[in-house]
Amino acid sequence: MNRKEQINLYLTLCGKGVSELGSKLYGFAMSFYVLKLTGSAQSFAITLLLTTLPAIVLSPFVGVIVDRFKKKSIVVLADFISGAIMLGLFIGTRTSALTLPMIYFATFSLSVMAVFLGTAFRASYPNIVSKGQLTKLNAYTQGLDSMLSIVAPILGGVIYGLLDAKMFMLINGISFLLSSFSELFINFEMFGKPNSIRMKSQTFMTNMREGLNYVLKKKTFMTIALYALCINFFMSSFSILLPYNLITTHGISPEINGFIQSIFPIGAILMSIYVGRKNTQFSQSLFRNTMLMFGAIMLAFAYPVLPNVALGGFIPIYYALLMGVVGMVVVLVNVPLSVLFQVSLEDEFRGRAMGLFGSLSQGVMPISYLLTGFLLDIVPSYGILIVNAIALILIAISIQKNVQLKAVAVH
Predict the structure, then answer these.
(1) Can you identify the CATH homologous superfamily of domain 210-406?
(2) In this structure, what are the phi and psi dihedrals at residue 376, rounded to the nearest 5 degrees?
(3) pTM of the full predicted structure?
(4) Residue 8 to residue 80: CA distance in whole angstroms
């Protein structure tokens, strides 16, 4: 890697890292503040909805915008606008109380900007670094995000105990502006080309239809997208089943629960380093094996809640070890898949393709959450986990037999 490319990589990690830290600190603080202000789980749920809904609804439209205009401008503006919103709210609350509508507005605004930032950045990776460094960039980005997931709650807890909740808006605003400034120095066209002039002469809806037609013709992309849709559906229920079993079935304390959850990003960090250094590439066997691993993990999570099974004091260690393995497997499949998409999609269509993929993969999650919550009142949690495990194993068998995936390789 030459010096210019290395600087590009470090600036990308720095820009994303600083804004991510600010966002995670803000999210941590506002979660506490909303519950303290209202004492209502419903208010907290609305905040969570405002965080996830923009990505589901807006991603396909944002993908068109990313392909129409300079990705660098979108990235810089998204962080700058986020910083301006945060600082504006901070100034506005200097003479008044921080209210729930303000928090809702801020959360929704940041979520919308995050869709622009994330889509533009992911579509730009093949232009920021060479193909040989794409795995490293994706792996280190995921590792950095996992590291911040550990640091942010610890740092946020300390700051929350010392400062007013409004100060998180100031900290977050400054972090976004710093990210915006650092991103000005990233060369977004070092290994790519500017956005098509032809696209800008067409209407927005023409661009969208053109992007949809392109994606539908990409058989490998559509095959993996459909698999991702099914995988996300069965894996999303885990987000409800794990805390349900820990708190309701095992009576785990919040402190121990936090410890167990914190092992996930540690596993993700370790695997990110491994994948980045080994330059792990996508293959049909890797995809199949990771799905088999997920199936086995689901069965392992079902074991402690089976009738007549008692692990006693070993429960926290058992769950912590499993969470570490989950973190590793998630990175092992996500990073090579991301690289595959980035190198196989043409620059002119990458934003639209990734926007559509993001919308589809995340859109199924709320359905999974609702269905899991409904089923937990009817069947035991181990039953849902076992069904999910069987489904993932069947997906792995299907992947192995899929002719479309046999010839897939990253060149």
Answers:
(1) MFS general substrate transporter like domains (1.20.1250.20)
(2) -65, -20
(3) 0.84
(4) 20
